[in-house]
């Protein structure tokens, strides 16, 4: 029984430490990368790998129980909303006219129409 | 939506919200349970009103097992992509090759398209920037010739989880 | 172990804050705010374990909800110059971003 608890602790340690490492790498990328479009990608590292690993680690540490259920709910919520807010930010930047600098020998596909999305219609 | 369907939906909403309250609260005293019942009632009333206003109920046309298998595959992809972007960030000379390009979308249902768009964004290195009928605009951090193929593969996997091709 | 994670999150928050203050575009700042919010959620959850009080998770959940809605509200405001249903005036958002 003891070795099982030990294995659980070691697994939690590993998950939390690697998650923290990804958070730091993502934040470092947000500072280091040269322009907005590149930084978007750095920002999605903490949102995906860092968040998943940290929550997994905390869940492993907590074991089964109400705490783990809450962790899973928060994790699922972040899993769904993280990319959505990244997409919203990128889309707003695109609509405002900000364009990425293309790599050598590449040409950007343009959006079909730059008009902002129509507002949802009100029901009568 | 017919009257009966609406009623079923309201009851289902109330059950889900009530269950969520019980899970999150963890304290089962009469006063707090009454608070829970009250807030569930308010939220259900709000949701019923919103349904009457816009009426766009989300539809669920997915095969649950295939979707679960897809999620496992997606987690593996996320791990791989994270590692790739980590290498780009930590390399002394960052080799960026940014590109904005269109990716064809074959899945039909809204939910599958949302899943595909979110999956693209979740894997670092590619971000969905604009959704258009039949295609997404995707921005890649370090684009190479294999990128469109990988995204087409992801698209095919998402489309395979759809239960019905509308 | 949770202390290490908390310190790592605080360092990451400091780096993101630097990006928040230095910009240069509006969208860099929105991105930084969003990342900062995610990090704050993680920090609150970790602090809960550090202090041995799992109730902190409720605050983390609430913060996650507010962070998402807040980011969307900011972006919507800069795109339409209004939170409610107003005529789109997206063009001005570009000038504000420079």
Name some characteristics of this structure.
heterotrimer; C: 98 residues; mainly alpha; disordered C terminus
Helical content of chain B stands at 55-70%
Q: Per DSSP, what share of the residues of chain C sits in E-state strands of 2 or more residues?
A: under 5%
Q: What topology, given as strand order, has the largest sheet of chain B?
A: 1-3-2
CATH topology of the largest domain in chain B: Alpha-Beta Plaits
Mean pLDDT of chain C: 80
Q: How many domains would you count in the coordinates of chain C?
A: 1
CATH architecture of the largest domain in chain B: 2-Layer Sandwich
Q: Which sequence of SSEs, written as H and E, runs from N to C of chain C?
A: HHHH
CATH C-level of the largest domain in chain B: Alpha Beta
Uncertain spans of chain C, ≥5 residues at pLDDT below 50? 91-98
Q: How much helix, percentage-wise, in residues of chain C?
A: over 70%
Main sheet properties of chain C: none
Offer a quick outline of the entry.
The complex is a heterotrimer of chains A (124), B (166) and C (98). With 124 residues, chain A is mainly α.
What does this structure look like?
- The complex is a heterotrimer of chains A (124), B (166) and C (98).
- Chain A is mostly helical.
- In chain A, 71% of the residues lie in helices and 0% in strands.
- Chain A has helices spanning 2-32, 36-62, 66-95.
- Chain B has 2 domains: 3-54; 64-160, Alpha-Beta Plaits, CATH 3.30.70.
- Chain B has helices at residues 3-25, 30-54, 64-90, 110-122, 147-160, and strands at 99-104, 126-132, 135-140.
- Chain C is mainly alpha-helical.
- Chain C has one domain.
- In chain C, 80% of the residues lie in helices and 0% in strands.
- The longest helix of chain C is centred in the middle third of the chain and has 25 residues, at 26-50.
- Chains in contact: A-B, A-C.
């Amino acid at each position: 029984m003891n070795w099982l608890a030990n294995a659980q602790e070691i697994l939690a340690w590993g998950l939390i430490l690697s998650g923290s490492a990804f958070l730091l790498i993502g934040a470092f990328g947000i500072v280091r990368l040269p322009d907005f479009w590149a930084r978007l990608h750095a920002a999605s590292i903490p949102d995906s790998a860092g968040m998943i690993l940290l929550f997994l680690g905390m869940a492993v540490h907590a074991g089964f129980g109400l705490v783990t259920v809450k962790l899973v709910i928060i994790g699922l919520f972040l899993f769904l909303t993280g990319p959505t807010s990244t997409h919203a930010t990128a889309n707003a930047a695109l609509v405002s006219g900000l364009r990425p600098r293309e790599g050598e020998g590449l040409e950007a596909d343009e959006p079909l129409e730059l008009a902002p999305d129509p507002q949802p219609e009100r029901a009568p | 939506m017919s009257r009966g369907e609406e009623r079923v939906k309201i009851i289902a909403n109330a059950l889900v919200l009530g269950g969520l309250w019980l899970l999150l609260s963890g304290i089962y005293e009469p006063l707090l349970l009454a608070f829970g019942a009250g807030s569930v009632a308010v939220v259900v009333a709000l949701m019923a009103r919103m349904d009457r206003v816009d009426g766009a109920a989300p539809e669920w046309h997915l095969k649950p097992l295939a979707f679960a298998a897809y999620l496992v595959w997606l987690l593996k992809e996320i791990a791989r992509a994270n590692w790739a972007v980590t290498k780009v960030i930590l390399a002394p000379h960052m080799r960026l090759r940014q590109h904005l390009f269109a990716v064809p979308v074959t899945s039909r249902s809204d939910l599958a398209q949302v899943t595909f768009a979110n999956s693209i964004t979740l894997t670092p290195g590619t971000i969905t920037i604009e959704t258009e009928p039949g295609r997404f605009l995707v921005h890649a951090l370090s684009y190479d010739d294999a990128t469109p193929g990988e995204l087409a593969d992801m698209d095919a996997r998402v489309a395979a989880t759809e239960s019905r091709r509308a | 172990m949770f202390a290490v994670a908390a310190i790592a999150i605080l360092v990451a928050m400091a780096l993101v804050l630097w990006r928040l203050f230095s910009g240069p575009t509006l969208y860099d700042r929105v991105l930084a705010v969003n990342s900062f919010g995610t990090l704050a959620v993680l920090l609150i959850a970790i602090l809960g374990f550090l202090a041995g009080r799992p109730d902190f998770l409720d605050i983390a959940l609430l913060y996650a909800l507010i962070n998402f809605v807040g980011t969307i509200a900011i972006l919507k405001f800069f795109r339409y110059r209004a939170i409610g249903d107003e005529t789109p005036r997206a063009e001005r958002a570009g000038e504000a971003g420079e």
